[in-house]
Specification:
By secondary structure, the protein is mainly α. The protein folds into two domains: about 210 residues, Rossmann fold; about 90 residues, Tyrosyl-Transfer RNA Synthetase (Orthogonal Bundle). It has 13 helices and five strands. The strands form two sheets. Strands 1-2-3 form a three-stranded parallel sheet. A two-stranded parallel sheet has the order 4-5. It is globular and about 70 Å long. The two termini are about 30 Å apart. The chain binds tryptophanyl-5'AMP. The site of tryptophanyl-5'AMP has 26 residues, from strand 1, helix 1 and helix 7. The site of tryptophanyl-5'AMP (TYM) has 26 residues, from strand 1, helix 1 and helix 7.
Length: about 350
């Protein structure tokens, strides 16, 4: 499977976020903020609320509805402009589910068994997990490849899934002797590709952590943000002057990375400014920065959530535009596979 496609595809960015609960600072710094930067750089950008992914674990229907709209508000408040980017929810565009089925028949059981996120999520109860949770990475490959996307900005936790997306594209192209699907590039860049829990610097900040103190939610108000940073776990040493000094200090490193990503600085520059400070000084500076950056976002999300009809309208328009790109690609896929029929995208 070394015969990577030779055709060059125009640069197109695709990424998605699950509407499976609130957004965290990890989602913002690892994904949303970078999505807006890609859009502002003038690249073609397609962003999706992946509700089909969310239902791989149980979702209360009314909560799913609310979370999808709130996530849309999060995208918009983070600077995604529905005129410059395509913004939609996955279930509204049939190409995702259809291509995922074809990819279920391309990917191998052994490839999926190696996925660490399935092992983490299913835990000891793999037999009780939904089939969807196991096949989830194939749907993710379909999300991306239905648009012939070439670049996928994500946090570090999605790296293995994107490797599988590459393997699926390569195997499909090889099996059918075509040069049809691009081999995507993961874009995992910046200081905050893995924002860690505020209670334990070795664990990822996650919406599913039972402790609300472990994360900053984009719906937290200024007082909650400041209190969580004040109580964040740290060590007694002052901040070092250089990055090497953060070795073995996971919590300190995390707070420096968060500061860097919020301030659009490198971690080195943060240490050049704050090295030598104890956390008694650095934490309030970080709290002020986080409140300054996140409060307007939070206020904008609340404002947008007052008009869900407008959110639904934006998503509907986005779905039409997404469908116009994906349907012909999936129609061509059916044709390559040998499926007969005249229905085109
Ligand atoms: P999800 O919904 O878990 O997370 C959405 C995005 O946020 C990033 N992220 C983080 N980044 C840094 N630090 C953290 N603590 C942190 N937590 C989350 C994730 O890496 C991700 O970029 N399978 C995906 C959704 C998906 C998708 C796709 C992504 C479905 N189809 C196609 C890209 C392309 C997921 O569950 O992300």
């Amino acid at each position: 499977m070394s015969d990577a496609p030779t055709k060059t595809f125009p640069k197109r960015i695709f990424s998605g976020i699950q509407p499976s609960g609130g957004l965290t600072l990890g989602n913002y710094l690892g994904a949303l903020k970078r999505f807006a930067q890609a859009q502002d750089a003038g690249i073609e950008t397609i962003y999706c609320m992946v509700d089909l992914h969310a239902i791989t674990v149980w979702q209360e229907p009314s909560k799913l509805r609310h979370a999808t709209r709130e996530l849309a508000a999060g995208f918009l408040a983070s600077g995604i402009d529905p005129k410059r980017s395509i913004l939609f929810n996955q279930s509204q565009v049939p190409a995702h589910a259809e291509l995922a089925w074809i990819f279920n028949c391309v990917a191998r059981m052994g490839w999926l068994r190696r996925m660490t996120q399935f092992k983490d999520k299913a835990g000891k109860h793999a037999e009780e997990a939904s089939v969807g949770l196991f096949a989830y990475p194939n749907l993710m490959a379909a999300d991306i490849l239905a648009y012939h996307a070439t670049h996928v900005p994500v946090g570090e936790d999605q790296k293995q899934h994107l490797e599988l997306t590459r393997d699926i594209a390569i195997k499909f192209n090889h099996d059918f002797g075509v040069d049809f699907f691009p081999v995507v590039e993961p874009v995992i860049e910046g200081a905050a590709t893995r924002v860690m829990s505020l209670r334990d610097g070795t664990k990822k900040m996650s919406k599913s952590d039972p402790s609300d103190q472990s994360r900053i939610n984009l719906t937290d108000d200024a007082d909650a943000i400041a209190a969580k940073i004040r109580k964040a776990r740290t060590d007694p040493e002052p901040l070092p002057e250089t990055l090497e000094g953060l070795e073995g200090r996971a919590e300190a490193r995390n707070l420096v990375n968060i500061y860097a990503a919020l301030a659009d600085m490198t971690p080195e520059a943060v240490l050049a400014e704050h090295g030598g400070q104890g956390f008694g000084v650095f934490k309030p500076a970080l709290a002020d920065l986080a409140v300054a950056k996140l409060s307007p976002l939070n206020a904008e999300m609340r404002r947008l959530m007052q008009d869900v009809a407008e959110i639904d309208r934006i998503l509907g328009e986005g779905a039409d535009r997404a469908d116009a790109i994906a349907a012909p690609i999936v129609a061509k896929t059916r044709d390559i596979v040998g499926m007969v029929g005249s229905r085109r995208g």
